[in-house]
Amino acid sequence: MKRRNEQKNVICACMTSTRNLGHDGFPGRKFTEASKSENWSKEVNHEDDSDILIECRNVYKSFGEKHILRGVSFKIRHGEAVGIIGPSGTGKSTILKIIAGLLAPDKGEVYIRGRKRSGLIGDDEISGLRIGLVFQSAALFDSLTVRENVGFLLYENSSMSDDQISQLVTENLAAVGLKGVEERLPSELSGGMKKRVALARSIICDITKESIEPEALDTMKTIGNASLTRTS
Ligand SMILES: Nc1ncnc2c1ncn2[C@@H]1O[C@H](COP(=O)(O)OP(=O)(O)OP(=O)(O)O)[C@@H](O)[C@H]1O
């Protein structure tokens, strides 16, 4: 994954070798020395906290008797791209859902750009935090073409013409390395291509946010299972 723009920041949850972090001039930082979430707090000390975009403080989350997150604390700074690494079922997606406001923590706090997230994503007071999601399952609409999936929000909620939307869709697909797939159905794509289509859908929301109703943006953010969160 390469950073295209200094203003974009990406957090991802994945199962990948730690050696992939920090390559290609890409600032990687490892939270986890072990899979347990209580070890996620290890991080480099910075003197200046003014560039913190996302901060989790002592976050706890259980599902019934399963204590998944036990005091997770970390800060993510402007310009950083951070991978959360760990075995399946250790809570990577759970912490992303909490950051994005799809789940509430049992205890602890999440700050986005210094603002405490005290509710879920649909709450008025936190609208406009501009967190985009790409879902683990891609969460594409099976019966819609790639063009319709990526432009979904715009077709439904903007005043843009079909031609304008179409052009934006093509540009955003090209930005994620996909060309000539606009008229395909999701079933005709590989798993990786589906993920990139989902990423294009997330990016298009950000680029065109001025022309979209705020409530529609919130709706778009809540579909599916998050594996990657992007803020700008
Ligand atoms: N809504 C839920 N209800 C009950 N249990 C849940 C719920 N969501 C997640 N869990 C449980 O919490 C644990 C952590 O799930 P999570 O999806 O965060 O793991 P993960 O680290 O992202 O896993 P993977 O790498 O396999 O995607 C798992 O045991 C899962 O079964």
From TrEMBL:
Which InterPro entries does the entry mention?
A: AAA+_ATPase (IPR003593), ABC_transporter-like_ATP-bd (IPR003439), ABC_transporter-like_CS (IPR017871), P-loop_NTPase (IPR027417)
Q: Where is the ABC transporter domain?
A: 54-229
Q: Which UniProt keywords apply?
A: ATP-binding, Nucleotide-binding, Transport
UniProt-recorded name of the protein: ABC transporter domain-containing protein
